[in-house]
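Input/output pair, single chain:
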Amino acid sequence: MMDRFDVVGIGNALVDILAKVEDGFLEENRVEKGVMTLIDTARAAELYAKMGPATEISGGSGANTIAGLARLGSRAAYVGKVKDDQLGRIFAHDLRAQGAHYETPMAKGDHDCETGRCMVLVSPDGERSMNTYLGVSEYLSPSDIDDGLMARSDWLYLEGYRFDGPDSHEAFARAIQACRRGGGRSSVTLSDPFCVDRHRDAFRRMIRDDLDLLFANEHEIMSLYRTATLEGALEACAAEVRFAAVTIGPGGAWVIQDGALSHVPTEPIEPVDATGAGDLFAAAFLHGLVQGRSAETCARMGCIAAAEIISHIGARPQVGLKELLASHGL
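Output:
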């Protein structure tokens, strides 16, 4: 019998390409400083050619979570689409090197799109200007979902960003059904309030009818329930969702379980870069769940992992997460 996985993630498969640049580079190349901009193939090739020496690592929100889980010692796997090109091979190698299982079939070399990438241009003041090309990641389809892999997953983790793809809703539904047949449970992270705006009804239907756990931050949960306050969103969520974890930045997190709300604080820290904080919160939270920890303990683990990520530039931890949690008695 094939081994089971603690968590299988599904989402974008991007290569993060990080390079230090001067502000003049941003001006010369018409890059808007400090924001994330979606770009097309031609623009991606132009910037990639001009940006000079860079660090390339597997990325995408869901992939960051799965890498974090693997680093923590969970048996983790990922499903995300790359092309059989240089960056696609970098993505696959790097994610596997983190200890994660990754076997999604690559798009063939003659595909019109290339492997997705996020070019992160870091200015001297530490500001990050991100230019994201989704590439073939956008074309994840139901045929990319391995029913056997889903059925061997104790938890399925779905990345909200991937809800934008033409076939993603159907791919997610197939994965959820296969996971449930195998006795597993399913979760989703909302990813971005603008993503929620585009798919609110579909998200709410899926969360209410098909999922066991919701991850969101305060802005995403308020967008989902169209409330003016966090308190209103939490009340609406508690009435509709059995289990949820809602992060509130320096305020820590709220856990909703069977209608009851509990607050978990976090330690104060000077933020350097918030990129990846939610990804690693989810990783540590899910790792706690598969270990049988209480929801409040899972949230505390998530807050500790998120605090480590925001203390430096980049969405990958710079210390051993297992050792970090152990130092907090977890």
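The two ends are 32 Å apart (CA to CA). The longest strand covers residues 14-20.
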